[in-house]
Each structure stands twice: as structure tokens, then as C-alpha cells.
Amino acid sequence: MEDGTAERIRPRDRILETARDMFHKHGIKGVGVDAITEAAGTNKMTLYRHFESKDDLVIECLRATACSANAMWQKFEAEHPGDKLAQLHAWVRMAADCLLTDGRGCDMANAAIELSETDHPARRVIKELKQAQRDRLVSLCRDAGVGQAELLADTLSLLLEGARVSMQSVGAEGPSAQFVRMAEGLITSFRAR
Amino acid sequence: MEDGTAERIRPRDRILETARDMFHKHGIKGVGVDAITEAAGTNKMTLYRHFESKDDLVIECLRATACSANAMWQKFEAEHPGDKLAQLHAWVRMAADCLLTDGRGCDMANAAIELSETDHPARRVIKELKQAQRDRLVSLCRDAGVGQAELLADTLSLLLEGARVSMQSVGAEGPSAQFVRMAEGLITSFRAR
DNA sequence: TCTAGAAGTTACAGACCGGTAACACCCTAG
DNA sequence: CTAGGGTGTTACCGGTCTGTAACTTCTAGA
């Protein structure tokens, strides 16, 4: 019978997707497993059959988020094949879009702040994934022919990270409103020298 | 008798100070009122005689933090009276010091991330205090004779905010390690034009 | 059609949370 | 000395949290 519609999604995936959304909106400590499973149209037992613990679920969510970010980078390459500078500008545009449409910041950064226990299992994963993203941005800057690629990449990273958290504390009219101008200015000035 | 030593601190102040420290280290949702009062050498009833609720305590803590920040700015003025550019450099140095010695980020930003409920009473206070800090940095930049003072101030703000959160996710060896170089470079380049 | 495994249901354990009530104590101001 | 306010103590309420046990129902594949 196969059910033509893609309606029938595995409970595990429904839980994962729902958890990502709810963790993103309300924070990790702000949402319980009961609320997740109910929103996912399933129950707690099924969750614990697929994930060892809530912490494990959190980690899987972070990995999924990193995976989505990967897709973003592939889109840059697909839309501007070979043109690394255009991809860098696309990165800025994507970041700005995220700022405007989202409101809540980066899931990994938020998680790092929320999970202050230094030995929390998610911290390893967060560091790992953030490091990978950093490396990728550095490569992009280097391939775009920018001198001091590391410095530009790190500056852009901090600007975006700062804009995301500033958005949540001061609001959208705060410093984060100038993100694009700052980023584009930096790229121009780094390319000039 | 008066007790010559300053040993005898009011329970309210002990609670406030202890709560600030524990909220800072473990987050707001990561520490309960019982733990606070026990660490402060008192009990829950006394806490609730001085503060309406945990949320109220959180807000008082944030105000106290803002007050400490005010003291910092007065120190800049005292150490470099009239020399606004020197005060700006002192701000950068202070920020870098904070990054190295602290590890956890800005209490207000962390609180904003943790308290994702848009109607949480602390959010008003956070926005208010962050806005005040922003205004002050803009003024400092302007008085230091920088063109586009707002843009420089906002860029420095985002860089610092980003460095604080990056420190918690990627670690101290990440992009935040370059904070001073970025900030000083920006100041130089904004003054040049 | 029959069966095995996945998923749903209900109930519960044990811990912690914020917040309150009632009462005993101490210390200081008068 | 005494009265009263600030403080400490204990117990408790109702709620929520993560995680588990035992059992039933569904569904897909042979």
C-alpha cells in the first residue's frame, strides 16, 4: 500500500525535529521531555527507546543543526561555483537573514551558555562543531584571496555571534542592526590591503 | 559595641552577593533558591522576606551587576581624566581582562538567552541596562573624536559580546583570542578616516 | 493469516523546584 | 528589664522533572 503521501514519518525523526524546534525556542532547560513527545504526537517511552537520555537527545539535536549548516555551505558553492568571494558575501547575506527572521540565536552558543557544567557531554560536541565551522570560514576567506584570512574569519565570527546575542538582549534595533554594514566594510578593508 | 570588623553583613546583602555569584557561574535555571540561601549561610524564609520571588531576586542581581559596571566607567574617568581616547583603550583592556579571567560571559546576555519567555519581567530590565551601556560607549567614542562613533561603538559591542559567547562554546583558543587586536585595529582605522 | 517488533498507554518512583505557615529564638533599642 | 522586629528552624504544599516497568495495541512482512 506504501501510502503515497510522506505523512508517515518515523517517531524518532518526529521527536528529533520537534525537540530541535522547542529547544531552539525555549532553551534546553526550558522544555521537558513530556512536552516534546506530546508536541511530536508520541509518548515518553518511545523517546527513551530511541535516545539514551535527554542529554543524548540534546546532542543529536546539535548534530542535526550542524548538518543543516553544512547544507547551507553546499548551497553557497552550488550558487556561486568556484567564486569564493561571492560565497563569502552570500554568507554575510545568509547571516543577516537569520538575524532578521529568527530572533533566537545560534543553538550551539545558546546551549553552551545554558549548560554551564564544564563536564556536560554536549560541550565536547559543541566545541567540535563550532571549531569545524570556524575552519570552514577561514578557508573560505583564504580562498577568496583575503590577506590575514584567519583574522577576518574570526572577526566575522565574533560579529555574528555578538549580533545574535545582542538581538536577544537589546533587541533588533540595537547594534545588531548594523551587522551587514560592519561585515561588508570589514571584507572590503581586508581585501584592500 | 558596634563590632569593629565588617563581619556582620546583612542577610539581604549576603543573599544578593551569593546569588549573583551562583547565577553567574551556573545560570539562573541552574541554581535553586535553597542552594543560594545555604551558600549564603541563611535560609529560604529570610530570602522571601527580602525578595518577592526568585524572578525579583534575579532582577536585583542584574541591577547590582549594572551598578558594578558603572563603577568601572567611573574608574576609567578617574584614571584618565578628560582623555576620552585613553578611556576607550582602557575599555578594550578591561574587556580583554574580563575575557581571560572570567570564562563565563555577560550576566545580562546570558540571562536574556536563558529566559526565553518574551514576557519575562527581567527582559525589560536587561534591555534597559544594555541600552544604557550602549549609549555610554557611543558617547565615549564620539567624545574621543571618532567619526561614525555609533558604528564603532556598535561594532566593538558586538565583538565583545561575540567574544564572550565564543569563549564559552569554542573555548579560549578560538576567535576570542584575537579580540584585542580586532578592537585596536578598528579604533585605529575609524580614527584614520 | 500469523507473527515479531515497533509504538502507545498507564502508572509510578524519586528527586527537585518555588513558595508558605507556624513557631522558637536572639539581639538591640527603649 | 522588656518589648518587638529580624532571623532561624522545621515541616509542608502542589507542581514538575527525568527516567522506568508492565502491559496493550498496532502494523508490516513472510
TrEMBL record, chains A, B:
Keyword annotations of the record: DNA-binding, Transcription, Transcription regulation
Entry annotated with the keyword Phosphoprotein: no
Domain HTH tetR-type: 9-69
Record feature DNA-binding region, as residue ranges: 32-51
InterPro entries for the chain: Homeodomain-like_sf (IPR009057), HTH_TetR (IPR001647), Tet_transcr_reg_TetR-rel_C_sf (IPR036271)
Protein name per the record: AcrR family transcriptional regulator
